[in-house]
Design brief:
CATH superfamily of the largest domain: Winged helix-like DNA-binding domain superfamily/Winged helix DNA-binding domain
Strand content: 5-15%
CATH topology of the largest domain: Arc Repressor Mutant, subunit A
Low-confidence stretches: 85-100, 192-196
Distance between the termini: 28 Å
Structural class: alpha/beta
Largest sheet: 4 strands, mixed
Number of helices: 12
Shape: globular
CATH class of the largest domain: Mainly Alpha
Number of domains: 2
Helix content: 40-55%
Order of helices and strands: HHHHHEEHEEEHEHEHEHHEH
């Protein structure tokens, strides 16, 4: 199987993974067994095991243990020490961050005000292990990444709607649909082991100075770790600006690479996510599994 075939299969698998997470979420007090959960998504227990092994690389039992509130809270406690260390070694400027996996550059003031006048943006829609996504790039990097195949927990967003939203954000830019130019980016973005190899991916950000600071702080949260809204507010020196921080996180234009899904509530609840809480849980659990020994 080639990479495009693999991604298509994983994207299709994700729909069932999400159904399983939703069933467990709705019946957690009953502690349903794997056979019961498998039956709810139309699979035998054997094929349910195979589905998770193919999609997550581990058994469903191991994967699903990361989805509990207690599991998230334990991870949060472990993450705080790591993030403190990251902050102390000076990864605190818009540039090479996120274990040197992502380099970030902001648009010029003129490009910000004009919503992209003079820029050419190429975009494409591709399958990923978490459903379809729309990705867009300028000559200076990835400027948009968002999911278009939505979850059962959020309203449907069509591919056309997603493209319309991209155009609205960059009204004056020249838009070109170019699947071939964006396709090679999908593998490094969604290969959770990619962080330690290859050259960094560039992101090209359009936002206010405050938003850029928040997104920069998000880039310091590595895969397999989480932080809180309070943690992000503290790291940008605005501990009292929780609402503004939450709004900036919600307006993150580049999902996954700028990991807003790694922000949870301090009590261990997963909290909201622009592309659905179920997808947020799936993203985090897959990262936890990959990062675990």
């Amino acid at each position: 199987m080639n990479i495009q075939t693999d991604l298509k299969q994983l994207s299709e698998d994700y729909l069932r993974i999400e159904q399983a997470i939703l069933y467990l979420e709705n019946h957690y007090k009953d502690q349903p067994g794997l056979e019961e959960v498998a039956a709810q998504i139309g699979l035998s227990e054997y094929h349910f095991q195979r589905l998770f092994t193919r999609w997550a690389g581990v058994s469903p039992k191991r994967f699903l243990q990361f989805l509990t509130k207690e599991g998230a809270k334990d991870l949060l406690n472990q993450s705080e020490n790591l993030l403190d260390t990251t902050h102390q070694v000076g990864l605190s400027s818009l540039g090479r961050l996120h274990d040197l996996f992502v380099t970030a550059e902001a648009v010029t003031p003129g490009e910000y005000k004009s919503r992209g006048a003079g820029l050419t943006i190429r975009y494409g829609i591709h399958p990923t292990p978490f459903g379809k996504c729309l990705i867009a790039t300028t000559e200076r990097g990835i400027c948009h990444l968002g999911f278009v195949q939505t979850s059962a927990a959020v309203p449907w967003t069509s591919e056309g709607d997603a493209i319309d939203n991209l155009v609205a954000e960059w009204k004056q830019a020249r838009m070109i649909e170019d699947y071939k130019s964006t396709a090679p980016l999908i593998e490094p973005i969604f290969d959770l082991r990619y962080n330690n190899r290859g050259k960094p991916l560039n992101v090209h950000l359009r936002g206010t100075n405050f938003q850029l600071k928040v997104w920069e702080a998000l880039l310091q949260v590595p895969a397999g770790s989480v932080t809180t809204y309070e943690g992000i507010a503290s790291r940008i020196g605005k501990p009292g600006a929780l609402r503004a921080v939450g709004t900036a996180i919600g307006h993150n234009p580049i999902a996954v690479l700028i990991p807003c899904h790694r922000v949870i509530r301090k009590a261990g609840e997963f909290g909201n996510y622009r592309y659905g809480t179920l997808r947020k849980k799936a993203l985090l659990a897959r990262e936890f599994v990959t990062a675990s020994p």
